[in-house]
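Researcher: We plan to redesign the surface later, but first we want a full-length starting point. Tokens attached.
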């Protein structure tokens, strides 16, 4: 269960990072 939370957290972090990079000019 903890492993699943870590995987979900990593995926969410990557999505946010990708969104931030794509938002740059």
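Model: Full-length starting sequence:
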């Amino acid at each position: 269960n903890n492993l699943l939370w870590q995987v979900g957290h990593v995926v969410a972090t990557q999505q946010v990072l990708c969104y931030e990079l794509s938002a740059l000019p």
